[in-house]
Design brief:
single chain; globular; L-fuculose-1-phosphate Aldolase; two-stranded antiparallel ribbon; 6 helices; 214 residues; alpha+beta
Length: 214
């Protein structure tokens, strides 16, 4: 069954909106072995409240991993921030992103996260990056804003504008060296990435603990 979400601002329980047009093929979950590392880091980040849900139920944060040697990637699904632990049914496989036309294709039991376009942009631009993490933390965001590569405040999350800002930072700044991006137009929003999720997660936790120790 193919479900096409033709409304750009589609209300979800995760981060308020999905801002791309999604072709979602509802299909069975991937085998557990494909999400073990994702769940390991998702559990850690949930424990630090870097991924979770607001009191009103709106979720924040997501995590992804490149799928094999392609630009496909597995990502936590929309509305999953409220769960303390995720199952295979909570992940989606993104098989295509089209930044110019603001479209995305995904499959699985659940539609992909509203930040999928940004995750996919990093994978397309950086062939050696295999893990991407997006979290929210106001204190860390305030501390790192403009001290590490930072997107233009006019670019909002999940949009082509944000994707193009990420591309700009990857090519014009030391974002690929530092492996962290602050989203000025998405308050509290932070991306880290790495050759795998261990590197992406390690960079994030390093910044988080450095801030906590001050």
């Amino acid at each position: 069954m193919i479900i096409f979400l033709g409304v750009i601002e589609y209300v979800t329980m995760e981060e308020e909106y999905i801002k791309f047009k999604a072709h979602w093929e509802k299909s069975p979950a991937l085998p557990v072995r494909f999400i073990q590392i994702l769940n390991h880091w998702r559990n850690i980040l949930y424990g630090y409240n870097l991924i979770g849900a607001q009191p009103d139920g709106i979720g924040f944060g997501n995590i992804s991993q490149r799928f094999g040697h392609t630009n496909h990637f597995i990502i936590s699904g929309s509305g999953t921030g409220k769960f303390d632990a995720l199952k295979p049914d909570h992940y989606s496989l993104v098989t295509e992103i089209d930044i110019q036309n603001n479209k995305l294709k995904c499959s699985g039991p659940i539609i992909a996260s509203s930040e999928s376009m940004s995750h996919g942009t990093i994978y397309q631009e950086c062939k050696d990056i295999c893990g991407v993490i997006h979290v929210h933390d106001k204190s860390l965001w305030n501390t790192l804003l403009h001290k590490v590569p930072t997107t233009n405040k006019k670019a909002t999350y999940g949009t082509p504008e944000m994707a193009f800002e990420i591309i700009r930072l990857l090519h014009e700044t030391d974002a690929l060296e530092k492996k962290i991006i602050i989203m000025e137009g998405h308050e509290e929003g932070i991306f880290t990435f790495g050759k795998n999720l261990d590197e992406a997660g390690g960079i994030l936790i390093h910044h988080y603990k450095t801030l906590s120790s001050h």
